[in-house]
Recover the amino acids of this structure.
């Protein structure tokens, strides 16, 4: 990992840590749930976490623009896609947060020329932070611990397929499960699914529903650093800076 990436990892890791602490403080209160224009939920935890993350990223690297979920919802998306920018999902899986499940995450990804090159995911309720910035650099750590290397695994005799809890059962998921004999399906929320593939706890993650780029950039960077992959449903490279920062369907895999 080059020295600039190492510096940016440290900044983003600290931002994810501080955001996770704020989220866990708010989850213990009687927080209010509001609705955005697309009817998705938003809470004080979303906005407070984003304020912390964006402030720390801009202070450390003012030349790198930030595309953040809640700011985009309130003020719109940038008119021009920069060659290098941060993608921030301050609380991915807000529904899980509202329902007091531990399936929510803090996502911070760096994109360069359409590629997710660096990623940090914090999992507040589990006290974990995952990072990655290039082949062989994927790590996992506790909020106050030291990073330890992680790697995706080759699929075992009984692979684990993680799927979206929000979208529920579907014919496409059922068809995918038919292609993975003896597989166990685990529905869950948030980008934490990428982390399970990266650490070798799961093997496949098919996604047919809509996602935004801030939902996937950090997870893709971490998974690819761990030896896994993310491709479109047609098998093409998964890139960023697309119209409205929206993703097509994709399939993430652990190690081939």
């Amino acid at each position: 990992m080059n020295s600039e990436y190492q510096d940016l990892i440290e900044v983003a890791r600290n931002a994810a840590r501080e955001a996770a602490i704020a989220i866990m403080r708010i989850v213990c209160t009687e927080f209010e749930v509001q609705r955005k224009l697309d009817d998705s939920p938003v809470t004080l935890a979303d906005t407070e976490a984003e304020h912390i993350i964006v402030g720390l990223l801009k202070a450390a690297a003012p030349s790198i623009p930030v595309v953040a979920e809640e700011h985009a919802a309130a003020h719109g998306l940038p008119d021009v896609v920069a060659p290098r920018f941060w993608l921030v999902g301050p609380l991915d899986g807000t529904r899980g947060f509202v329902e007091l499940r531990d399936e929510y995450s803090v996502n911070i990804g760096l994109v360069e020329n359409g590629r997710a090159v660096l990623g940090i995911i914090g999992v507040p309720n589990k006290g974990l932070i995952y990072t990655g910035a290039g082949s062989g650099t994927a790590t996992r750590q506790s909020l106050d611990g030291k990073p330890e290397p992680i790697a995706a695994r080759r699929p075992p005799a009984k692979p684990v397929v993680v799927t979206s809890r929000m979208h529920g059962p579907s014919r496409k998921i059922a068809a995918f499960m038919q292609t993975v004999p003896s597989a166990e399906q685990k529905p869950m929320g948030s980008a934490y699914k990428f982390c399970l593939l990266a650490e070798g706890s799961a093997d496949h993650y098919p996604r047919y529903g809509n996602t935004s780029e801030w939902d996937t950039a950090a997870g893709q960077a971490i998974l690819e650093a761990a030896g896994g992959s993310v491709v479109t449903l047609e098998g093409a490279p998964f890139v960023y800076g697309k119209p409205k920062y929206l993703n097509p369907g994709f399939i993430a895999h652990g190690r081939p």
In short: Residues 160-253 form a domain with the D-Maltodextrin-Binding Protein; domain 2 fold (CATH 3.40.190.80). The mean pLDDT is 94. The radius of gyration is 17 Å. Helices lie at 3-26, 44-60, 69-75, 94-98, 171-178, 192-198, 213-225.
